[in-house]
Specification:
Layout: E1 4-10, H1 20-35, E2 36-42, H2 50-69, E3 74-78, H3 91-111, E4 114-119, H4 123-130, H5 138-151, E5 154-157, H6 160-170, E6 176-178, E7 199-204, H7 213-224, E8 230-235, H8 240-245, E9 251-253, H9 259-267, E10 271-273, H10 280-284, H11 288-295, E11 300-303, H12 307-315, E12 318-321, H13 325-335, H14 338-351, H15 357-360
Parallel strand pairs: 1-2, 1-3, 3-4, 4-5, 5-6, 7-8, 7-10, 8-9, 10-11, 11-12
Length: about 375
C-alpha cells in the first residue's frame, strides 16, 4: 500500500524534455509515484492545445471532489507553471490563481490538506538575465507572490540562496526547505566510444550566447593553442550558429540529444563546463546541468561565486575561476592534469548519492 496521496498541478510537459526545471519536476513526480498515489492535474497556460484543455475540464471536477471529500492530500504546485511568475499577459489571470489558492487553503483547513510549491527557478530573474520580454511588473510580481507564498504550507527552493533572495525581495520570512535539483542514477548507461586520447570538455544545455557559451568557446580556442590535445563537445538545442562561427576540428556540436545519449556522451568526457555571466540570477541558482555532470561522474569548472562553485570548493570536485578570460583559461589547462582529475572524479563518486532524487526527497516526504 502506498503511503501518501499527492495532487500534482503542472503544465503540460513534453515527453522529450531532458533538461532544466521541467526535468527536475519530472524526476520529483516519478519518484513520488513510487511510494505515493498520484493524481496529475495538467494546469492551463496560454499555449494549451484544445485537447489538453478538454483534459483539464474533465479533471477539474475530480480535483474539486478530492479537495472537498478526501483528507490529507498533499497538493504540489510547480512554481514556474503559475501564470503569475513572468509570462502572464493579463493580471486577471493572477487573481484567478489567487482565488483558486484561497479555495484550496479553505478546503485544506477543513480536510487537513497540505499545499506545497516547488520553486525550481526564478523565471522573472531568468528572463532579465537572458534579455527576454517581461509581461508583469516587479510590483505586481511581489504582490502576488506574497499572497501565494503565504497561502502555501511549505515552499521547496532549489537552493538556499534563492530562498534568501526571495525573503529579501518580499521583505518577509518564508517557511521553506531546500530541495536541490536531483536526478535518477545513470549507472546503467555506458560511455560513448570516442576513439582518441584527447582530454575532453563538455557543455550540455541550451546553446544560446546569453548563457556564457561564447565566453566558453572563445577561451577554449585560446587554451587549445597551449594544449592541442583538448576537445570541446557541445550538446543541446539552438546551437546551429556554432559550426559557422567557430569551425574547428577540436569543437564538436552534437545537436540536441535525448537523456541517455547525452549521458553517454558526458561519460566519455573528462570535465563539465559552466560559465554563466556574473549576475545575480546565475549566482543564486543551482543549475540542473550541475547535477547532470555530477550524476555522469564528471568534475566541473564554474565561477567561484556561484552555488556550483561552492559545491566544487567544498567537495574538491573541479576547478573554480574568477569571471575573466585568463582565469577561465587557467582553470581549463589546470584541469587537464591527470593526477588532479583522478582525485576529483573519486570525490564526485562519493557525493553522487546526495543528488539522487529519492535521497533528496527523504527530508520532505
Amino acid at each position: 500500500m502506498k503511503n501518501n496521496e499527492y495532487i500534482i498541478v503542472q503544465n503540460i510537459i513534453p515527453n522529450n524534455i531532458t533538461e532544466g526545471g521541467s526535468m527536475r519536476f519530472v524526476n520529483i513526480k516519478d519518484e513520488l509515484s513510487e511510494n505515493s498515489e498520484i493524481f496529475l492535474m495538467d494546469f492551463f497556460n496560454k499555449n494549451l492545445p484544445s485537447t489538453n484543455l478538454l483534459s483539464f475540464l474533465i479533471k477539474f471536477p475530480i480535483l474539486i471532489t478530492k479537495l472537498l471529500f478526501q483528507k490529507k492530500q498533499r497538493i504540489l504546485f510547480n512554481y514556474s507553471n503559475l501564470p503569475l511568475t513572468h509570462f502572464a499577459s493579463f493580471e486577471f489571470l493572477n487573481w484567478l490563481i489567487i482565488i483558486f489558492f484561497i479555495f484550496i487553503k479553505a478546503a485544506s483547513l477543513i480536510k487537513n490538506h497540505r499545499i506545497i510549491i516547488d520553486i525550481e527557478d526564478l523565471p522573472r530573474e531568468q528572463s532579465k538575465a537572458l534579455g527576454y520580454k517581461l509581461y508583469i511588473t516587479d510590483y505586481s510580481r511581489t504582490k502576488f507572490e506574497k499572497i501565494i507564498f503565504s497561502l502555501a504550507d511549505e515552499l521547496w527552493f532549489a537552493s538556499d540562496s534563492m530562498a534568501k533572495y526571495e525573503m529579501k525581495l518580499l521583505k518577509k520570512d518564508l517557511n521553506y526547505k531546500v530541495v536541490h535539483n536531483s536526478s535518477k542514477s545513470f549507472d546503467n548507461i555506458e560511455p560513448l566510444n570516442i576513439e582518441n586520447d584527447n582530454f575532453k570538455f563538455i557543455y550540455a544545455g541550451t546553446m544560446n550566447k546569453e548563457r556564457g557559451l561564447k565566453f566558453i568557446i572563445e577561451n577554449f580556442i585560446k587554451a587549445s593553442k597551449s594544449n592541442e590535445n583538448i576537445e570541446l563537445h557541445l550538446c543541446g538545442k539552438s546551437g546551429e550558429w556554432i559550426k559557422k562561427r567557430y569551425p574547428s576540428e577540436n569543437i564538436k556540436y552534437w545537436g540536441p540529444l535525448n537523456e541517455d545519449k547525452a549521458v553517454s556522451l558526458a561519460k566519455s568526457c573528462d570535465i563539465g563546463l559552466i560559465a554563466y555571466p556574473d549576475s545575480l540570477y546565475f549566482n543564486i541558482i543551482l543549475p540542473a546541468k550541475t547535477i547532470f555532470y555530477i550524476m555522469s561522474g564528471l568534475p566541473i569548472i564554474d565561477r567561484n561565486n556561484t552555488e556550483t562553485g561552492n559545491l566544487i570548493n567544498t567537495h574538491n570536485i573541479g576547478e573554480t575561476f574568477k569571471y575573466s578570460d585568463k582565469s577561465f583559461i587557467d582553470a581549463l589547462l589546470k584541469s587537464t592534469n591527470n593526477d588532479n582529475i583522478k582525485i576529483k572524479k573519486k570525490n564526485i563518486l562519493i557525493i553522487q548519492k546526495n543528488f539522487l532524487t529519492k535521497n533528496v526527497l527523504k527530508s520532505v516526504t
